[in-house]
């Protein structure tokens, strides 16, 4: 992955670095994504200088490089005097005034994808909960990376345009609708604004592509301008897949009564009297694939 193409990913990294600093209590926190054996620091928090910005840490070199090579957290209470690491990056680390340094690799599906660091400007001993606190942050960050990977995979596989007057195969259309419902579920769990925007763009593309797959190629005048809430769209997306209220509630983590309420509101907005008519109307309005 090229660093300059990761707007959403960088946003997630920034959030992870800030969370890492708060959770561990370190004076300074920083981190970067791994690419071909090198982790490049692109996010800083609590820093006094820019000495660490853009630092490229190779596997096996320095504390972070050792953490990447061993796929486990590494800590040194006296960075300058440590004999357990190489000192290729002393100038950058010591310029920031760091005495104690902690490096944690972010592992996704067995591969190191990033490294988060915490540094202290005093040689104070780390607390007993340090590793657990750091692991909680890196675990959430690893989940975000998985989401980014899945979104990027689906974007890469998505047609860039619809072939006019060509009927989309039923199996393909069904897969597209299932993907849309899955993405709606993922989006509901994501708090990062950049990633949510990326997911929303992918959902819109899915709906746009399917709108050219049959006779429903124009927006119905009666439903034009209708706006459904995110949860109303979630419910209708699963209704489109044939789910019952109970099943949809289990999938979305909502009660059956809540599902009924969202469905009633959506059908009213769309001017329909049944769940299936609401799905059809939402598709005509370009709200669902």
Automatic annotation (TrEMBL):
Signal peptide: none annotated. One of its GO terms (biological process) is regulation of DNA-templated transcription. PROSITE patterns: HTH_LUXR_2 (PS50043). It holds the Pfam family GerE. This is HTH luxR-type domain-containing protein. The keyword NAD does not apply. Keywords: DNA-binding, Transcription, Transcription regulation. It comes from the Bacteria. Residues 221-286 form the HTH luxR-type domain. GO terms for molecular function: DNA binding.
């Amino acid at each position: 992955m090229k660093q300059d193409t990761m707007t959403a990913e960088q946003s997630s990294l920034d959030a992870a670095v800030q969370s890492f600093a708060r959770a561990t209590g370190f004076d300074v926190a920083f981190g970067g994504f791994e690419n071909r054996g090198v982790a490049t620091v692109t996010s800083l928090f609590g820093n006094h200088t820019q000495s660490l910005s853009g630092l490229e840490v190779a596997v096996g070199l320095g504390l972070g490089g050792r953490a990447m090579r061993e796929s486990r957290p590494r800590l040194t209470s006296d960075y300058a005097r440590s004999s357990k690491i190489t000192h290729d990056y002393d100038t950058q680390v010591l310029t920031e005034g760091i005495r104690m340094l902690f490096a944690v690799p972010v592992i996704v599906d067995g591969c190191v994808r990033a490294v988060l660091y915490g540094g202290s400007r005093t040689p104070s001993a780390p607390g007993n909960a340090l590793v657990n606190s750091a692991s909680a942050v890196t675990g959430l960050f690893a989940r975000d990376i998985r989401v980014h990977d899945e979104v990027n995979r689906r974007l890469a596989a998505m047609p860039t345009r619809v072939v006019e007057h060509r009927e989309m195969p039923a199996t393909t259309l069904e897969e597209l609708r299932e993907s849309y419902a899955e993405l709606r579920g993922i989006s509901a769990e994501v708090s990062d604004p950049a990633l949510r925007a990326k997911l929303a763009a992918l959902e819109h593309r899915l709906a746009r592509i399917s709108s050219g797959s049959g006779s429903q190629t124009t927006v119905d005048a009666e439903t034009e301008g209708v706006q459904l809430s995110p949860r109303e769209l979630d419910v209708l997306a699963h209704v489109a897949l044939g789910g019952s209220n109970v099943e949809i509630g289990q999938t979305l983590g909502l009660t059956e009564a809540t599902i009924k309420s969202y469905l009633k509101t959506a059908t009213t907005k769309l001017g329909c009297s049944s769940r299936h008519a609401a799905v059809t109307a939402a598709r005509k309005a370009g709200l669902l694939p």
